[in-house]
């Protein structure tokens, strides 16, 4: 389902992509690829212009997959969504959480760069 969602996303078929990722999440709510599916769904929702849905998808993932080894990717995606939604304070807050929770990772490095860029605006 994730591979299908990725193909549909790449083909600009966002509704179909959202459906495929959603089917994975519904079928395997604790599946090992749930972070990938939810992040993919959120980016398809963003591409469609439905930023509140993307925010909701990522927020729900953060609440339900706290210990997943890839959860830093979801935090990064949520911070990105806040930037796109023109909510810089929320983006900086999430970037700060990333830097604190995932030090010495590429997520933290990116978060520190984005925080600096947002604070300099």
* Alpha plus pi helix count: 7
Largest sheet data = none
End-to-end separation: 40 Å
Shape: globular
| Structural class by helix and strand composition | mainly alpha
What's the alpha carbon Rg, rounded to whole Å?
A: 14 Å
* Number of β-strand runs: 0
What portion of the residues fall into strands of 2 or more residues?
under 5%
From N to C, what is the helix and strand string?
Answer: HHHHHHH
Portion of residues within helices: over 70%
Low-confidence runs:
none
Please state the average pLDDT score.
96
Name its key features.
single chain, 121 residues, mainly alpha, 7 helices, 78% helix
Summarize the structure.
With 121 residues, this protein is an all-alpha fold. It contains seven helices and no strands.
What does this structure look like?
- The structure is a single chain.
- With 121 residues, the chain is an all-alpha fold.
- 78% of the residues lie in helices and 0% in strands.
- It is built from 7 helices and no strands.
- The protein has helices at 2-10, 14-27, 34-48, 51-64, 71-84, 88-101, 106-119.
- Helix 1 runs antiparallel to helix 2 (14-27) and helix 6 packs antiparallel against helix 7.
- The relative contact order is 0.10.
């Amino acid at each position: 389902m994730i591979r299908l969602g990725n193909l549909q996303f790449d083909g600009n078929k966002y509704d179909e992509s959202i459906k495929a990722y959603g089917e994975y999440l519904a079928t395997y709510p604790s599946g090992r690829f749930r972070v990938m599916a939810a992040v993919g769904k959120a980016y398809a929702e963003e591409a469609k212009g439905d930023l509140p849905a993307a925010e909701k998808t990522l927020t729900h993932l953060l609440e339900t997959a706290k210990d997943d080894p890839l959860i830093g990717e979801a935090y990064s995606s949520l911070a990105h969504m806040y930037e796109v939604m023109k909510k810089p304070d929320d983006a900086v807050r999430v970037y700060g959480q990333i830097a604190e929770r995932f030090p010495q990772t590429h997520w933290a490095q990116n978060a520190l760069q984005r925080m600096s860029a947002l604070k300099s605006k």
